[in-house]
Amino acid sequence: MLVGELTKPNLFPDFKLIGGKGGLNNEVNIVAIIDAPDMDYWVSGGELLIGNGFVFKEDPSFFLRFVQQMAEKNVAAIGVKFDRFMASLNLKKVTEEADRLSLPIFQIPFNYRWSEILEKVALEINESEKDKSTMSTNISFLDDIQDPFILLSLLSKKTGRHLFFKIKKESWSCFFEPQDGELTDFNQKDGSEYDKASIISASPFPSTNSISSWREIRAFQNNQQAIVFSSKSPPFFSIHAFLKIGEKRLSQKEEKLFLRGFLALETLMKERFLSHTEHQDEISRIIELLVLGSHFDKEQVFSFFKKWRIPFPTPCRVALYRSSDGKKISTNQRGYLFCSSIIAGFITTLIPWKESDSIWKPENTIKILQTLHRPVSLGSTAANLEEIKNSFDQAKKLLLHVEKKKQSIENSQGVFLYDDMAFELAISLFAEIPEAKSLWEKYWKPLKAEGKSKCVPLQEFASELIDSNLNLSLCAKQLNIHYNTARNYLEEVNKTLGFSFSDSKHFLSFCLARQIDSSIDPKKDSH
Questions:
Q1: CA gap 326, 328 in Å, rounded
Q2: From CA 25, how far away is CA 425, in angstroms rounded?
Q3: CB atoms within 10 A of CB 143
Q4: Beta pairing partners, 219
Q5: Which of 9, 96, 247, 379 is at a distance of 20 to 30 A from 521, taking alpha carbons?
Q6: Contact 202, 212 (CB under 8 A)
Q7: Is the peptide bond between 235 and the residue preceding it cis, with omega within 30 degrees of 0?
């Protein structure tokens, strides 16, 4: 175990570090009690020495010489009950010496029994040794993961840490919750406050592909700290592993897990970056074959995704949106991870869509797409390669519809699923035929001319009546009018249209006419 772990909540949170914070990463191998001033003869390194100061009772100042001797012997840390036999010792000088030697010295509260400290530390060391013996097999799984976000999710889940991941040059970020490793709060924060946090320490560490990588400890205003692993070369990403309040570092097991995970992630991100920037033509060709329904060789498609280590795109949905300049793909949409290309003027993306997937849940994918802040349409789920064309056609129809009706669509900059909008699309197409206009003129248009002087126009009343499923009480409540007033309105609607809602055929025609009304161009209808 590390010296810094002594103050964990389950161990000794009330141990006060009075100096030597530079040695908090020292490893503790055993606990020994200070029972003689010549302890340097008996120690061999890695000890946590504890005592009540009795051996320094006659000359407390000798403790400073003792600290120097223990540092020379590579003792891990010292803990003393200073307030019993060493009350006259100048602790300021102890702090200065401990800091100079980077030897942690703790002030132990008087109420602790030595047996309690010995037992707890021994158990912690034992657990640490178990972790060491299984570490290589426990973390080797990281090397086999081919999806960066699955890797991050597992790191969050296994360490119980909140993680913040950011591709710096693309201003793209997301969070991972430790409970189940889910992605949450996409782009709710850009992470700028984390980048501005004060750096307590920073050091480079060996990495792959000659990429310069750094490990930092950053402190925030709420006394929380995070260990930050960052790549200083393309694609410029970082991982913040948040410490709990009061924690100063990761455990030895977590440190190794994150370092191994970072190196694996670095390799993946480098490959994705290269495949996205240098081989976009090949990606575009494959996507074009799939979405346009051209003849394609399945084996060729399979080998392509295997070659670039991209998750196979079925089941998937085709997502369409327009780029800001109409020419290029915005990299602020996980371009390294999704397959994207410009097809027929639209940025076309194949997005994994697995209801049972713990990582790629539909709600998570929608959160990602919402960060584009523009209309995004998704076709229905394609279960195999042949169905991708159908999903593309649906997404194209839907996006064109949303763009045409953006003035009347709530949150027109959002994400739209074909499944949810199929009825509206059908009505929109139906409204184009002459019979639809006739239906509208008989069942809805008369309400526009009647009741304009009323507190609630007949058209508004009729719409609310449909939304209330003919429940007159609910309709009156929603419109904030008396029930008897609502009855009078209903009689007037029946009189104006010349039919009763008890006739199901008339009621269905009435509902269709209301839907058609939103597709009628007011300019074409003006007399």
A1: 6
A2: 63
A3: 12
A4: 198, 225
A5: 379
A6: no
A7: yes
pLDDT tens digit sequence for 428-445: 888 888 888 888 888 888
* HSE (side-chain half, CA atoms, 13 Å) at 241: 30
CA triple 7-12-16, angle to 5 deg: 65
Distance of CA 14 to the CA centre of its chain: 34
CA distance 15 to 33: 16
Closest Cα to residue 466, out of 427, 506, 430, 429?
A: 506
Q: Is 370 in contact with 386 (CB distance < 8 Å)?
A: no
pTM (two decimals): 0.48
Q: Tens digits of per-residue pLDDT, 133-166?
A: 443 444 444 555 556 777 787 788 878 888 888 8
The two structure tokens encoding residue 467: 């939304």
Say how far apart CA 69 and CA 90 lie, in whole Å: 19
- All structural domains of the chain, each given as residue ranges with its CATH number in brackets, are 3-133 (3.40.1390.20), 145-273 (3.30.450), 279-427 (no CATH), 431-525 (1.10.10.2840)
Q: Going by DSSP bridges, is the β-strand pair 346-352/376-378 parallel, antiparallel, or unpaired? A: unpaired
CB 199 within 8 A of CB 216: yes
Residue 152: φ, ψ to 5°: -65, -40
- Note whether 183 and 148 are within 8 A (CB): no
